[in-house]
Specification:
The protein is an alpha/beta fold. Helices cover 47% and strands 13% of the residues.
Length: 324
């Protein structure tokens, strides 16, 4: 099992390490980490992030993409206001622009030497992130994802592992094993599996109020997958207990609808309150690793400072009964 930490090439992360490879490597050594899962890999600089520490690459996620994929111009105009904004968001106005973008990221991951890439399977519009009145079913999103993935990998010279990540939004939630099987059967690419995000799974249950219950919920859900459990190759190990906040937001938005522009402005902060990316502190977290036995365990945190990052790593190491 490899123990990794999430790292991006965005300025906020690079500034934290002063764009210095030694500082990144020292953090990994200090906390007995085996490498990083890299986000925004097209901006990768080998002089700052050595290829030897990059074990995985997290591909870009377009939260709102299905209307674009289906060429639903009226719905795109309602959401974005103009085709110019649509083009800014997707990098073009045809399917090929996102197909080509993902191809470039996967080829970059190969160039770096990563062992796997991660792909989110979900779709959500801005207002539905607040109201939970979703427009697409799990089946529709999974079918479209398979169609997209097959186009991306068509003729692509790669053997990299493709790991599908669950979210709490419609698509791949891990709650229904038929949906996992549906995705695996429709994707033509051979080297595929799943990246289980523990916080995303916890976010599907609004009644969770403590880590112990959350861990048991994850164990029960994975157990219900039966033989498909073996396709879980990695775990984004982080904790989220945001059910109370979500229930309040749904109630508030149904009672007094927030203006769309205000939703759009604050949606990132809203999502971060749902998907908290905190460390596990309960020692029962070790049961997740023992039961699933993944190849990769990624500490996927959102932190305000380098000091908080170290604190979170130490907390989760202690929960897993691992040496620093």
């Amino acid at each position: 099992m490899l123990k990794l930490i999430n790292l991006s090439t965005y300025k906020c992360d690079m500034d934290r390490f002063h764009c210095n490879s030694s500082e990144i490597i020292n953090l990994l050594k200090k906390h007995n980490m085996d490498g990083v899962e890299l986000l925004n890999s097209l901006e990768w600089n080998k002089n700052i992030i050595p290829s030897s520490i990059v074990r995985g690459v997290h591909l870009k996620y377009y939260p709102t993409w299905l209307d674009f994929w289906n060429n639903n111009e009226s719905e795109l105009l309602r959401q974005f206001g103009s085709m110019k904004e649509v083009k800014n968001y997707y990098g073009g106005t045809t399917r090929e622009c996102i197909i080509d973008y993902y191809r470039s990221e996967i080829l970059q991951a190969d160039k770096i030497g990563a062992e796997y890439v991660v792909f989110h399977v979900a779709h959500v519009q801005v207002e539905h992130a607040y109201t939970y009145d979703f427009t697409y079913s799990d089946e529709e999103i999974i079918d479209a994802t398979a169609e997209l993935i097959n186009e991306i990998f068509k003729g692509l010279n790669t053997k990299i592992k493709l790991l599908f990540e669950n979210l709490w939004l419609p698509g791949l939630t891990m709650l229904n094993k038929d949906m996992l099987l549906r995705l695996l059967e429709q994707v033509d690419y051979f080297n595929k599996g799943f990246m289980l995000d523990t916080a995303h799974l916890m976010n599907t249950n609004f009644t969770l109020t403590n880590e112990k219950d959350g861990i048991q919920y994850i164990l029960d859900t994975v157990s219900n997958l039966g033989e498909l459990k073996k396709f879980i190759k990695g775990i984004h190990l982080n904790c989220s207990l945001s059910g109370k906040y979500v229930k309040e937001q749904i109630k508030e938005n149904h009672k007094c609808k927030i203006p769309f522009n205000e939703m759009k402005k604050n949606v990132l902060f809203h999502i971060m309150k749902i998907d908290m990316h905190k460390p596990f502190s309960d020692i029962d977290a070790k049961k997740l690793i023992d039961f699933i036995n993944p190849q990769y365990v990624i500490y996927e945190f959102i932190t305000k400072s380098f000091e908080e990052l170290e604190e979170y790593i130490a907390i989760q190491n202690k929960a897993l009964q691992l040496l620093p």
